[in-house]
Amino acid sequence: MNDSFCSSVCVTLLELQEEPRRQERKNGTAMAAPATPAKPKTSPKSIKFLFGGLAGMGATVFVQPLDLVKNRMQLSGQGSKAREYKTSLHAVASILRNEGVGGIYTGLSAGLLRQATYTTTRLGIYTVLFEKMTKADGTPPNFFMKAVIGMTAGAIGAFVGTPAEVALIRMTADGRLPPDQRRGYTNVFNALIRITREEGIPTLWRGCVPTMARAVVVNAAQLASYSQSKQALMDTGYFSDNIFLHFCASMISGLVTTAASMPVDIAKTRIQNMRMIDGKPEYKNGLDVLLKVVRNEGFFSLWKGFTPYYARLGPHTVLTFIFLEQMNRFYKIYFLDS
């Protein structure tokens, strides 16, 4: 998100928490446990949320160029059938040629702030709600409740992260405009200050509704498809529960999630990047965006930027896992076991 965090991160983290309870119920060891067992040391919730956000930020450093290309593709040919970029590779070549190597990292500061706000909020709310819904005997919520929790956490996280999202869209879109039309934000904080001063505070939440709608769609699609694909791969007998399985399941889930969420994502991108024309907004709402895109650019233009959007999901998930695991490992070694 560029939804970026991944529902699969939440799913797998909580599956790891559930695994000991499942084994206890399976082996019947839960009943034989002492009345007051010693609880293993765990990191505080604040540390878990912090690490979740930092892991997402670390992954964003690697996948930011894909976000940039996706946003440029979604804005390409806006208002007509003539596209600036024919393919994702053409977009990359054009960006490198016109803006240099540093151009592919345009908007990185906004991407990092988005992870710091959206991912941390989403992961935190998901974890808190999940624990509240877990029964006293350790039985986790059923799949339907997980989906509801995930969609709720995603929507709230999207609301919190919308200002950074607006800055990200505008910063990544700037390079495609003629020099006299560029906004010229130097970093995400400069963008937020200027947007507030020049367009008012409400503009920071422009496109909030489609942003939240996209988060709900992503969670609904990703929670179901990730869990289902992970189980299907395990059932083949060729996979064990490791990073390779997570990567494969993420890529399958990403295909479903991308197809389901891209129309909402393009509506969000267009609204957040739009300018006022003769004192009137370019689009009335998300539905107006979709209708104009279909009418002026063709039905399949709703999936512009599919390749970089899809290519981002799996690697971002795996990189988030790696960073998260390493931070948890070092915290355990230096703070819990010391």
Automatic annotation (TrEMBL):
Subcellular location field: Membrane
Ranges in coiled-coil conformation: none
GO-annotated biological processes: lipid transport
Membrane topology of the entry: Multi-pass membrane protein
Parts of the chain that traverse the membrane: 49-69, 143-161, 243-266
Record-stated family: Belongs to the mitochondrial carrier (TC 2.A.29) family.
Protein name: Mitochondrial 2-oxoglutarate/malate carrier protein
Organism: Astyanax mexicanus
